[in-house]
Design goal:
Radius of gyration of chain B: 14 Å
Largest sheet of chain A: 5 strands, parallel
CATH topology of chain A: Hypothetical Protein Ychn, Chain: A
Number of helices of chain B: 4
CATH architecture of chain A: 3-Layer(aba) Sandwich
Strand order of the largest sheet of chain B: 4-3-2-1-5
Largest sheet of chain B: 5 strands, parallel
Strand content of chain A: 15-25%
Structural class of chain A: alpha/beta
Strand content of chain B: 15-25%
Number of strands of chain A: 5
CATH topology of chain B: Hypothetical Protein Ychn, Chain: A
CATH superfamily of chain A: DsrEFH-like
Helix content of chain A: 25-40%
Oligomer: heterodimer
Radius of gyration of chain A: 14 Å
Shape of chain B: globular
Chain lengths: 130, 122
Amino acid sequence: MIFSIVVTGAPYSSQAADSALRYCKSLLKLEHQIHRIFFYADGVHNASELAVPPQDETNIPSEWAQLAEQHKLDMVVCIAAAVRRGVLDENEAGRYEKNSHNLTPPFVLSGLGQLVEAGIVSDRVVTFGA
Amino acid sequence: MSDTKKSFLIINRKAPYGCSAARDALDVALTISVFEQPLSLLFMDDAVLQLLPAQNPAGIGQKNLSANLAMLEMYDIDQLHVCSEALQQRGLRAEDIELNINLLDRSGIATLIKQHDQVLSF
């Protein structure tokens, strides 16, 4: 089955991000296909390269990045939600004349159309919210 | 644009201000309509407060949401479903809402969810 996942909770604030991560790992283990993981609202903080959790806690942004690299997952962060909350890639940092950027590769910034397209293409869309 | 059609249901559960959920849901609704996919909106719990007229959130530095909700019809989003229990619990009547709504009880909500391909909750 083809799944897409929506994450609207920030890591370390709610269980949403951690649950979504575990859910994705289970889907892959069961050999389902993940079309896209879409990060929206406070979920954009999952893509911050600058998160530094204590060593005995899961580093959620880097876990996402590793999982995506391993399984070639498409991880899209809503651009409007992200720039508002200070999650920028190099391009946006340039556009808004900021001297730094913090989007972890392979996360990419894109629009809400990517969420709708995921809904059209997937058999199931599962939302993890705060 | 894709040729395939999927019916979408957006479930709103949060009050209009205090968190970004209402605005986030509305932005997704407008995007779904741009993709010309069938869409229904369901308002449950505190989200029924999103539908009240004469909102004035300027004092808390927020943009008014009700104007955008009135715009939904212009985008052909006319399937607005409201949980009747949520209205009752908050002392509201269907007449308090100046939009064209469809009241649903619990079993009606279950049927509505079943009728849609994709459900997004905010």
